[in-house]
Each structure stands twice: as C-alpha cells, then as structure tokens.
Amino acid sequence: MEPQEVIVRRAAKEITGKQKVAIGPGIPELVRQAVPPGTQVFRIDDRSARIPGLKMAVVEAAEVSQAGDLCVKPDARYAEIQAEEWVAVTMLSDPSGNPKIVRKCHSHVSRPRCVTKIITEKGVIEVTDKGLVLIEVRPGVATDDVKKETGASLHIADDLKLMEL
Question: What is the rounded CA–CA span in Å between residue 160 and residue 83?
C-alpha cells in the first residue's frame, strides 16, 4: 500500500458519525471520499471559518511541533477556523529526509498549539501535555524507526496498537 493511501485510510477512521469536518487541500481531500455517510464535509476556505459546530479539521502539515503548533502552506485560511480537534496528516519526513514533526517549527506557525493528533505513513502520534506519544504503529514498522525519523522526543504508549487500515 502506498504511504499516502495509508494516511488517507487511517485519517478517515478518525471521522465517526454525523460530524461537521473541515478538510484542507492535498491529502485531506482524499480523506473526503472515505468518510462515513451523514458526515458534513467542508473544504477549508474563508467560508469554513464561519461554520458553527465544526468537530474536526483535517489538514496536511508542512511541520508540526511537539507542542502541537501547526505550519501549513499557505496558512491564511486556517487562522479563523474554530474546530474542536485538529488532525494533521503528513509524511514523517520531507523529500530531502528532514523530519516534519519537530521540537520547534522552523516555518511560520499557522496555528499555535492546535494539533491533537498526527497521522503519518508509519504511525499515529498524540500530542499531549507530556509530549508526543506514539499510540499506533503501522504493521511491519519498528517503533525505533519512527523515533529516528521524528525530530522531537517521542514516547511510546504502554498500550501501543497496530494501525488498522
């Protein structure tokens, strides 16, 4: 399975029931095709900022810090969106091999401390008050590999699960 498909399938599992969900451009647009019936999906743009009751925003991150700071490009449309949960989808590394999950963002922070969960091609990471916690790992991927590719301290959950795709 291609890495992008892993991310799409796993991200779709975050969306349950009849929710209002804002979807950013890129990989999140593919998630739209896999959401459960009854879900109201809105493309992130200037209008989605004014939609009351948004449960979740699913966005493709350029970087995410260990504190949940989100960097997206372009970032103008993200400033006003009010969602209960922010799920960042991203590859663990950029094409040059640089980590996209970092201690501190190198780019402009689009939204500080908003990301609650990060879904990558190799695992699912929760952003907690105690730091980043790997809660799911893709079958066949070693937790040490995920730790090595993450540019921030990463804890392994005591009840680590395999990603269900």
Answer: 27
Residue ranges for the chain with pLDDT beneath 50: none
Phi-psi region of 151 (alpha: psi -120 to 50; beta: other; left: phi over 0): alpha
In a domain, 159, yes or no: no
Distant-in-sequence, close-in-space partners of 95: CB < 8 Å, separation ≥ 6: none
Q: What is the pTM of this model?
A: 0.94
Domain count, the chain: 1
The CATH number assigned to the domain holding 45 equals 3.40.1080.10
Residues 6+ apart with CB under 8 A from 23: 29, 31, 32, 41, 42, 43, 44, 57, 58
- pLDDT score, position 99: 98
Residue-number span of the structural domain to which 74 is assigned: 3-121
In whole angstroms, give the CA distance from residue 156 to residue 140.
16
In this structure, is residue 158 part of a structural domain? no
pLDDT digits (tens, 9 = 90+) for 10-35: 999 999 878 999 998 899 999 988 88
